From TrEMBL, chain A:
It holds the Pfam family ThiF. Pathway: Protein modification; protein neddylation. One of its GO terms (biological process) is protein neddylation. Residues 1-20 are annotated as: Disordered. One of its GO terms (cellular component) is cytoplasm. Residues 1-10 have a biased composition (Polar residues). This is NEDD8-activating enzyme E1 regulatory subunit.
From TrEMBL, chain B:
SUPFAM superfamilies: Activating enzymes of the ubiquitin-like proteins (SSF69572). It is an enzyme of class 6 (ligase). This is NEDD8-activating enzyme E1 catalytic subunit. Belongs to the ubiquitin-activating E1 family. UBA3 subfamily. It comes from Podospora didyma. GO terms for biological process: protein neddylation.
């Protein structure tokens, strides 16, 4: 009779705090680190026009708990506001719009602070920008005064503040992000299925001997043992056999891989009670995906090739780690091992051993990268945790706005727009044959034509677009977009404002938390066809 | 070009922006069905039903109120929990414990003058055809596939080809993290929720033997505590997923088991996530998807621009914000063998002709194309198994252990399946036996 051990210390239980309970559904997306970044964010909204899309954006940031926001809006609340903006009511009529909006937004989350302008302390936008603590990000909505736009652009440049320009009118909208330089993201949250990297074609000694040990007598394993060999071990065993009969090379062509797959399939036992083996099924299914030596992912290649001209960039932790990983890659012809092992049929103990083999190799690789980092000037201060995260995600590291820091690659935004217009119009000619949807650029052009006016006629809009696209009034899609924008007369549809505000908030969260991948750099929405297009403009 | 005339119904100054769009034709407006003079008034008279007053529902109520609808009804049986407050913006800390439908309705009515919102704090299954017949449009913001399938089946069955009013367009939204989808269904005319069921395949269940003897992941230990240890030890009379004491018990059990197998990663948060099947949710995504749904409702009600869901057109928008922003708007085709809206029986592959009826019954829950948890089965000639009433269950139970062959079920035969979750529907399936391995 076994004695029951009662002296074992029960685990310390941390039930979730009140705040963790409130934010539970979002912490599962961006974790405590993302939440901390949000909570220290200070957001400015410069609101104008029909005034809804910016507020819907802020609503989606106040709810998850940004630290602080400020609204600059120099209008008073009118009847028309009450038909489109949810954060105003009849009692607000005739009062400062920024003050009224701030009060009703603050009701959403007692942990958020908010301020409204202009007030007696800052009577103009310029005054607000000079006196306020630095903003983490700024959103402004069209139509906007040219003077405000210039002040914001200058502020963004000076303080390295991301700017979000948003325009919503009738069924259409777009928003554009201006980042103060190249924007790297390490914690990109790739789909779990994309991250498997088992190194079956470049196994290291510990993995080799583990697999060999389990399969040295594979024919004589009993049904239970044979049916619980992890698929990684199965594949390593038969790859080894393949090499022996193929002059030392691995299956590389599609034909060879399907042949290899057949070999694995045939090695499964069918004379057992189940009439088949799940672990072999898993191995067969994994052949095409895991029997590969992954090329350098394009995202990371872009990071390696990016030319750094700004000294501050050169010294940042991210770029020092990039250099170290590049060195590692040059030496080993592979990236540091991420170290995770997907679930597979195996005995608990065996699976945990396998996990540990991958984990310790990953730790070893990250250690090597850390050594290179430490040997670099300014490398001593870098947090080993940052190196570890980079190594784990190396294949998915991404650089947004990659031409931003490289002045030689910079062209003026109007030249760039002309290039994209040509390209998009050309694509559209083949769109139908290719079963591709049409470009949404005409919507952008029509909206942009009303950047500084409250409302415009179809003819006004076309005349403005013609400055970028000669003969715009002859291009049916542009005429149609101009008509649709003219119909709105500068007014917003609440649904389109709410939808756009949701997208802008998602993007701001990605940029503030440095998690997930933001757009690069303009998103256009067509509310009639319910569709988006992202373009770099 | 002179601007076309605007035709407001009421408070022209307040609804100026809306009336500019809905009462005047745009370049893509279909002139055959659009009449700007009556749009605003028609929308004010429409009755629209919202199902769900949660993350999507709060947004939907706000959006419809600001789209010119005046008579909105909302059904939700849930009460407000603290974890709702990060996105369900009509609720405050002091509302925790109150009915969602009630609180949401009162809030929007207070904020948007002239809108009437009627809340129902109950299940959709509590209402019959007569109730649903009064609405012109239904917008769903639900988190359960089952409720979506139920309302879909109800609306499809309500269609009477002779009566135009019996066609109720259904608009459905759903989100998960930074992703979501919005779709429009014209019952019996275009692809329905049941036609699209395989787009929402259930997560593959972990085999019981993995939980019982070879756990490898923290989730396996939690499922073990949830499925096996709880049943064996019954620490409380009934498991309540919302009771922290119950979750703590499961967490401790799972943790002890994980330590025994040297598995790391069991946390309170993960335990709660696995047991309650929690889907991450944020305000921003709800904002996108609810607005996409209401934008379609607005276009359907006003005809001021083409909507999704017309026959032969796109009816489904997928949205993903994880990696840049990507939308895919496409046409999901209606299925002739849809058990709800099709007229052909759907093929049901029988893996092994030696199967017992029990194996067939059990397989319905996990088949992506069926997903029926409590199926009752009839063949063309007789009742094979009934889940209820108890007397019939008892009478038919012996059939469970007979093989399909013994029950006279052969290749190509049709069976009818009903499930208490979809009271009104009989799912038609046609058996297709896989040939036994040689």
């Amino acid at each position: 009779m076994t004695e029951i051990v009662t002296s074992q210390t029960p685990p310390i239980l941390h039930g979730p705090s009140e705040k963790e309970r409130k934010y539970d559904r979002q912490l599962r997306l961006w974790a405590a680190s993302g939440q901390a970044a949000l909570e220290s964010a200070n957001i400015l909204l410069v609101n104008s026009g029909a005034g809804t899309v910016g507020i819907e954006t802020l609503k989606n940031l106040v709810l998850p708990g940004i630290g602080r926001f400020a609204i600059y809006d120099d209008t008073v609340v009118t009847e028309a506001d009450l038909g489109v903006n949810f954060f105003l009511d009849d009692a607000c009529l005739g009062k400062s719009r920024s003050q009224s909006l701030t009060a009703l937004l603050l009701e959403l989350n007692p942990e958020v602070e908010g301020a409204w302008y202009p007030n007696t302390e800052a009577t103009t936008l310029a005054a607000l920008l000079t006196t306020s603590p630095t903003f983490t990000a700024i959103v402004y909505t069209y139509p906007i005064q040219q003077e405000h736009l210039s002040a914001l652009a200058e502020y963004g440049e000076k303080h390295k503040t991301p700017l979000f320009a948003v325009h919503s009118a009738g069924f259409n909208s777009y928003f554009k992000i201006s980042l103060p330089g190249a924007f790297p993201i390490v914690d990109t949250h790739p789909d779990e299925t994309a991250t498997t990297d088992l190194r079956l074609l470049a196994p290291w000694p510990e993995l080799v001997s583990f697999a060999k040990d389990m399969t040295k007598d594979i024919g004589n394993l009993n049904h239970f043992e044979h049916g619980h060999l992890p698929c990684v071990v199965i594949l390593l065993h038969y790859l080894d056999q393949w090499r022996e009969t193929h002059g030392g090379s691995y299956p590389s062509t599609y034909k060879e891989k399907t042949e290899f797959r057949r070999i694995v399939q045939n090695a499964a036992r069918t004379d057992n009670p189940e009439g088949g083996e799940e672990n072999f099924d898993e191995a067969v299914a994994a052949v095409l995906k895991t029997v590969v030596s992954p090329p350098l992912p394009s995202g990371l290649r872009e990071v390696f090739e990016y030319k750094r001209n700004i000294p501050a960039e050169q010294r940042s932790g991210f770029w020092i780690i990039v250099d170290a990983v590049e060195q590692f890659y040059a030496k080993h012809k592979c990236l540091p091992l991420p170290g995770s092992v997907p679930d597979m049929k195996a005995q608990s103990k065996v699976y945990v051993q396998l996990q540990n083999i991958y984990k310790s190799k990953a730790r070893q690789d990250a250690g090597e990268v850390l050594q290179i980092v430490h040997a670099t000037a300014d490398g001593q201060q870098i947090d080993p945790a940052e190196v570890e995260l980079f190594c784990k995600n190396a294949a998915f590291v991404k650089l947004i706005n990659a031409t931003g820091g490289d002045s030689s690659a910079r062209i003026s935004s109007s030249d760039r727009l002309k290039l994209v217009v040509d390209q998009e119009l050309e694509n559209d000619e083949n769109a139908e044959a290719m079963m591709m949807p049409l470009s949404l650029l005409p919507i952008y052009l029509a909206l942009q034509a009303t950047s500084h006016v409250a409302s415009a006629s179809e003819d006004d809009i076309l005349a403005e677009v013609a400055k970028v696209v000669p003969g715009a009034n002859q291009i049916e899609k542009i005429v149609s977009a101009a008509k649709e924008v003219a119909r709105a007369e500068g007014g917003e549809l609440h649904n389109v404002a709410a939808l756009t505000g949701g997208m802008v908030a998602q993007e701001m969260i990605k940029i503030i938390t440095k998690q997930y991948i933001p757009i690069d750099n303009t998103c256009i929405f067509d509310g009639i066809n319910s569709r988006c297009q992202v373009l770099r403009l | 070009m002179a601007s076309a005339e605007v035709y407001p119904a009421s408070e022209p100054a307040r609804w100026k922006y809306l009336d500019n769009i809905r009462t005047r034709a745009g370049p893509l407006t279909n002139p055959d069905i659009f009449d700007g003079q009556v749009v605003a008034q028609n929308m004010e008279n429409m009755k629209i039903l919202v199902i769900g007053a949660g993350g999507l529902g709060c947004e939907i109520l706000k959006n419809l109120a600001l789209s010119g609808f005046k008579d909105i009804h909302v059904i939700d049986m849930d009460t407000i929990d603290i974890s709702n407050l990060n996105r369900q913006f009509l609720f405050r800390q002091s509302d925790v414990g109150s009915f969602k439908a009630e609180v949401a309705a009162r809030f929007v009515e207070r904020r948007v003058k002239g809108v009437k919102i009627t809340p129902y704090n109950c299940k959709i299954q509590d209402f019959d055809e007569d109730f649903y017949m009064q609405f012109q449009l239904v917008v769903c913001g639900l988190d359960s596939i089952e409720a979506r399938r139920w309302i879909n089946a109800m609306l499809v069955n309500m269609v009477d080809e002779e009566a135009v009013d019996s066609y109720k367009p259904l608009i459905d939204g759903g989100t998960e993290g930074f992703k979501g989808q919005a779709r429009v269904i014209f019952p019996t005319v275009t692809s329905c929720i049941e036609c699209q069921l395989d787009m929402h395949a259930p997560r593959a269940a972990v085999p019981l033997c993995t939980l019982a003897s070879i756990p490898r992941q923290p989730e396996h230990c939690i499922e073990w505590a949830h499925v096996i240890a709880w049943d064996k030890e019954k620490p409380f009379p009934k498991l309540d997923n919302d009771d922290p004491e119950h979750i703590t018990w499961l967490y401790q059990k799972a943790l002890t088991r994980a330590q025994e197998f040297k598995i790391s990663g069991v946390t309170y948060s993960l335990t709660q996530g696995v047991v309650k099947n929690i889907i991450p949710a944020i305000a921003a995504t709800n904002s996108v998807i609810a607005a996409a749904c209401c934008n379609e409702a607005f276009k359907i009600a006003s005809n001021c621009a083409p909507c999704l869901g017309m026959p032969g057109e796109n009816n489904y928008m997928m949205y993903s914000g994880n990696d840049s922003i990507y939308t895919y708007t496409f046409q999901h085709e209606k299925k002739d063998d849809c058990p709800v809206c099709g007229n052909l029986a759907r093929e049901l592959v029988i893996e092994n002709p030696e199967w017992t009826l029990r194996e067939l019954v059990d397989s319905f829950a996990v088949r992506p194309e069926a997903q029926l948890k409590k199926p009752s089965i009839r063949s063309e000639s007789k009742t094979l198994y009934m889940q209820s009433p108890a007397s019939l269950e008892e009478q038919t139970r012996p059939n469970l252990d007979k093989t399909l062959k013994e029950l006279g079920l052969t290749d190509g035969q049709e069976i009818g399946v009903t499930d208490p979750a979809f009271a009104t529907v009989s799912f038609k399936f046609k058996l297709k036996f896989k040939q036994a391995a040689a």
